[in-house]
DNA sequence: TTTTATTATGCAAACGTTTGCATAGTTTAA
DNA sequence: TTAAACTATGCAAACGTTTGCATAATAAAA
C-alpha cells in the first residue's frame, strides 16, 4: 500500500485522500507538462506528439481523471445539449417522439433534457424562461393544449436559440416545424371508408381550436365533399382531449341517432377503440355493420378486436427529424436562423375494423 | 429611433448590434456598480439594498439580460441536474417513471437529462462514462436487460455521484434502490387466483435471470406451496422479454396441454392480454373457464375484454420516489453516500378477467 | 553553416459568475 | 464624542478548460 502511494506525488495524494476531483492541472504537474498540452493531448490535437498523448492517457488512468464538462462547455460556450418541452411524457406518442430525439441526439453527441408542460401555458412559459439561460443549444417543443400565443418563444429567438416545433405547432408564427399532413391523412382515412362502401361517415374530432384537429376535420369534410356525400353536423362529435371516455360518450351519441352512421373516422386511436367497444356491445358487427378508422397507430390498435385500421403518424421518425433539423440549425450558426417545415408522409394501415378495398361489393 | 438608442451607452449598443449576449458586466457598466453587486442583487442577497435591486431589475429588462447558467453552474460546481438511464423511453412503464422523476425534479428546481441504453450493456457503459464528467449531480438507472455486472457504476461512486436504481436493480451491489416487492406482489396475484377457485394455475415468466422476474416466479411458487397446490413445470413458460407474441406462443402451449390450467398468472400485461385473446379465440370463457391475472396495470388492461385483473406497479410513484431519494442524497453531501432501499407497496386491481373473491362458489 | 520549415510545447488570457474579505459610509450604543 | 455595529458595496481571486500567440528544439533546405 505504501509502495503504491509512493508513486503519487504529495499533492496528488492529498487530492486523492480528500476525494477532490483530479483536474488537467494535476495531470500537468504529474507529467511536467503545461495544462494546455494536456488539454490538447486529451482532445487529440494534431500538434501533440504521439508519445505525449500516450503518457497523458496513462496518467489519466493512474489518477482517475475525468473531464469537467461544465468547465469545458463553459469555455467553449456550447452545451451539446437540446431541450424538449412536451405536454406529458406518459402519453405514448410523445414518449416515442422523445425516443426518436434521443436516438438521433445520441448519435450526434448531444444530450437531451426534458420538461413537461403538463399542457399548461404558464408552465410552458416558465420552462421557456429556464431554457433561455444558455442551458441548451436548441429546443424541441410540442405546444401545450392551452397555448394560444407564442411570445414566450421570442426571447429564445432573440438569444439565437433555435427552436423546432413538432405535432402541435404554432400557427402564423415563423418557426421550424415538423408535422405530418393531418389534412391529407384524414382525407386518406375518410376516402378509405368511402371506397370500402360507407355512405354515412361520422367523425370524432378533437378540440377544433387545435390546428391538427382542425386539419383532420377539414380533411374529413373535404373527402366527403369530393365524393358528393353531404355533410351532416350531427355526424361530427367534438371532444376536449380525445380520451377513452369521451370516445364512449361520442359513440353512444352516434348509436342513438335515428339514421346511424356506417363508418366512423376518429381523430385518435383511443376514441376509435372506445367506439369499437360501444358498437360491439350494442351488437353491431365491425366492419360488417360499421367500419372504424383511428389515427396514430397506437399499440392497442393491433390488439383490439377487431384490429384497428389507423394512420401511422410516424412518432419516432418525427422525433428523429426534429432532432436532425435542430442540430443542423445549431451547427449552422448563420446570422439568421432559417425556418423550415418538414412534412412527414403518413400511411394508412388497413386492419380488420374496416373492409378492405377489394372486399366491398 | 436615434433617441431610443441614445439611452444605451456605446458598448451596449455594439453588443446589441452584434447580438452578443448581455452579461453581468454589462449591467454593471450600465448602472455603475461592480459585477459582484449585480450578481448579489440578482440572487436577492440580503446585503443589497432594495433600491439597487430594483435598479438592477430594470436594467435587466432594458438590456435583455439572461443569466448564463453554464457559467453559474461552473462557478458553483453544481448542475442542478439529474441523469436518467432507461432501457427504452417508448416502453410505457418507463415513460411513466420518467414522468414521475421529471415532476419531482421540476419542483425541486432540478432538470432531467435522459439516455436510452436500448437494453445494451455496452451502451449503458458508454452513457455511464459520459455522465461521470460532472454533467449531472446524480443518476437514476434502470438496468439494461443485458447488464450482469456493475463495474461501470463504480467510477461514479468514486466521484461521489449518487446513483439510485429502480425496477431492474443490481443484485449483490451496494446501492440505493427503489423497487416494488415483486415476490409479494406475485404471491398476492397467485393467491387471488387460488381464492377465486382456481386449482391449476400456470405462469408466464420473464427471463428468470432478471431478478424481478425471478422474484415473481418465486412468489407464484410460494403461493402454490402455501396452499398445497403441487408445482408443475409444464405450467410454467419462460419468455425472453414478455412481449405480445411470446404471450401468444405460451398461451397456445397451455391450450394444448391435456390437463389445461384454469388460471394463469402472467408476469406482465402484454402476455396477459395475448393469453386472454388466445383463450377467447379457442372459445374459452374468461373468467368462467379460465382466469387471467397480469402485472403492471398498463392502460390496455382497462380496455381489453374482459378487463384485466392486474398488479398496479406504481410506475409514476416509483419515479417520484427515485428523484426524491436521489436529490436528498445529492444535497446531503455527507462524506459517505448512504445506500437506501425503498420498497413501494403494490396493489392488486381486481377486474373482470378473474372471479372476485365473493363470486367463487 | 545559415536560413527556413516543421514540430512540440508553454504562456497567459479568457469565458461569466460567485464569494471571502475589505472598506466606506451610516447608524446605534456607550 | 468615540467606539461598536451594521449596511451597502467593491476588489480580486477562483472555478477548469481552451486557444491564440510565442518560443524552443529539431529537421530540412539552401
TrEMBL record, chains A, B:
Task: Give yes or no: UniProt keyword Lipid biosynthesis.
Answer: no
The chain positions of domain HTH lacI-type read: 22-76
GO molecular function list: DNA-binding transcription factor activity; transcription cis-regulatory region binding
Return the InterPro entries for the record.
HTH_LacI, LacI/GalR-like_sensor, Lambda_DNA-bd_dom_sf, Peripla_BP_I
Tell me the Pfam families matching this sequence: LacI, Peripla_BP_3
UniProt keywords (A-Z) are: DNA-binding, Transcription, Transcription regulation
Query: Which PANTHER family did the record assign?
Result: HTH-TYPE TRANSCRIPTIONAL REGULATOR GALS, LACI-RELATED TRANSCRIPTIONAL REPRESSOR
Q: What is this protein called?
A: Transcriptional regulator, LacI family
Task: Supply the source organism's classification.
Answer: Bacteria, Pseudomonadati, Bacteroidota, Flavobacteriia, Flavobacteriales
